[in-house]
Amino acid sequence: MKFDTLALHAGYTPDPVTHSRAVPLYMTTAYTYDSTEHARSLFALEQPGNIYSRLGSPTCDVLEQRIAALEGGVGSLATASGHAAIQMMMMNLAGAGDEIIAGNNLYGGTMNLFGVSFPRLGIKVHFADAHDPASFEKLINDKTKAIYVEAVGNPNADLADLEAIGRIAHAHGLPFIVDNTVASPALLQPKKFGADLIIHSTTKYLSGTGTVMGGMAVDCGTFRWKDNPRFPLFNNPDPSYHGVVFADAANNAGYIMRLRSLILRDFGGCQSPFNAWITLLGMETLSLRMKRHSESALTVAKFLEASDAVERVNYPALESSPYYALSKKYLPNGASSMFTFVIRGGREAGGKFINACRLISHVTNLGDSRTLVSHPATTTHSQLTDEQLVAAGIETGTVRLSVGLEDVGDLLEDLEQALKISQE
Ligand SMILES: Cc1ncc(COP(=O)(O)O)c(C=O)c1O
Fold this sequence. Notes:
7-stranded mixed beta sheet, Aspartate Aminotransferase, domain 1, 16 helices, single chain, 5-stranded mixed beta sheet, binds pyridoxal-5'-phosphate, Aspartate Aminotransferase, domain 2, alpha/beta
């Protein structure tokens, strides 16, 4: 089946008991066993089935199968948030004494997780230049467990050369992990460019309505854990799970099996079935929305580029962007709708602009059906000095937009009046 059909059908056929056409929402904590023997075999992973909703639920299972199908994966795991996905995915690979190499252009929350919280747990994260694949290779050593990048960086919508970075990871026996939140699988399927593991904040475009938190870890089944000396955890019998050797799992799906049966079990960041159900509703229109988001964002980006009140627009589908060539390769069907522009007049003009927006909402989120705006220098990054802002790729006049699904003419009108006020 093709992408749009999978987005509507993958992972669910009407169940034989209720014949429900839509995916049912199963709100229950626990599931009954037929017998003690049935319970034993479920716990021993001898047969699939529901035990307890921290470990999985039928509604989350449909979402997991659907996103795995859209990304070409062998399995996936729904988590409480995008951050829960990142944290648990890394815990599934690395522990105290291990190292990870990440791009230096990550979402601020991921930068904190990697730069501050992981080192407290003994996991060292090196930051490579996301735009220089060779800089990743220089940081690889015996302790390295993975290479991690954002396909489209948040906030500046800069693009990493996935294929080049993936090749380096594989040459050193390392899994390549890609955060595909901003593009979504409707615009980019990182597996085609070497990703072994994919993470999503489903909070954003996948659910698409700014209503529910969620994350997803996808296992592409491409990485060979078996006999890889970097991963004894996958190659030795696991004492906390009946001595199972995860590298022996069928379909090369040991990573996702371990993520659920050990890491989710122990760290507990499961997704609510309700959130999974809302996300499934949103995903029914994913590719329609991503097309419209991308078209409107390009119209808005061109409008801003032509405005005297704007110094620069960072949108990869603009010919003026240094990432234009990469966008043709990785995002040929649209470059999503989150990007930044630099307003003339710095911090003060940025603040005035935000206050003047009427239709566009001042919100710290992206991927909503409504258009959202934020000004990092007065909000998320207000603790930083101007020099630190520049190091983070943010200027005092940087404004981030997430272009929604409204009539684009109404958006341009709102932007025009707010830009005018920003310059008064
Ligand atoms: C690219 C990216 N990855 C991960 C996250 C974290 O997701 P969540 O907020 O669902 O925890 C975000 C949140 O903004 C994000 O933009």
